[in-house]
Specification:
It contains 3 helices and 9 strands; from the N terminus they run αβββββαββαββ. It is an alpha+beta fold and about 150 residues long. It has a 5-stranded antiparallel β-sheet with strand order 1-2-3-4-5, with helices on one face. Strands 6-7 form a two-stranded antiparallel sheet. Helix 1 packs parallel to helix 2. The longest helix is centred in the middle third of the chain and has 20 residues.
């Protein structure tokens, strides 16, 4: 199970964050902002699903046949930790409603009109809603996702 490798690393890296382990397969990080909601990391056997508050989720997996199970679990764990570091640093923005949602690395360019029409105009980062027209974080703090 990925969680056997990942969860101790989450504790080591994010020990100061409010969280709880739910069963053997989920870690729930308490919301930094009520409008955003909790972030959930879930072991799905061959990948990890990260639920970004009330908005959307992403899948983090590795299907390199040249790796052992341990090697795949290690790569997935590294990607999850990197993604959480970026999310907790407000480098990932997300949005959504009951019809769906999405996320992306923060950009200076706002979401498209169609995206706002389909999923609502509010955009969020981990610490809360972004004000309309809020700039991306400084480039020196931006890191690559995916």
């Amino acid at each position: 199970m990925i969680s056997e490798r990942l969860f101790p690393r989450l504790q080591a890296r994010f020990g100061d964050r409010s969280k709880k382990i739910v069963g053997a397969r989920q870690v729930v990080f308490s919301a930094a902002h009520a409008e955003v909601g909790d972030l959930i990391v879930q072991d799905d056997d061959d990948e990890v699903t990260v639920f970004l508050g009330r908005f959307t989720h992403c899948h983090i997996g590795n299907y390199d046949d040249g790796l052992t199970d341990v090697g795949r679990e290690e790569r997935i764990s590294n990607e999850v930790i990197r993604f959480l570091e970026e999310t907790f640093a407000d480098q990932v923005e997300f949005w959504g409603n009951h019809r769906g949602g999405s996320s992306r690395r923060r950009k200076p360019k706002p979401r498209s009109f169609l995206s706002k029409l389909l999923y609502g105009s509010r955009t969020y980062v981990w610490s809360g809603p972004l004000e309309s027209g809020a700039p991306a974080a400084p480039a020196s703090k931006q890191v690559r996702i995916g």
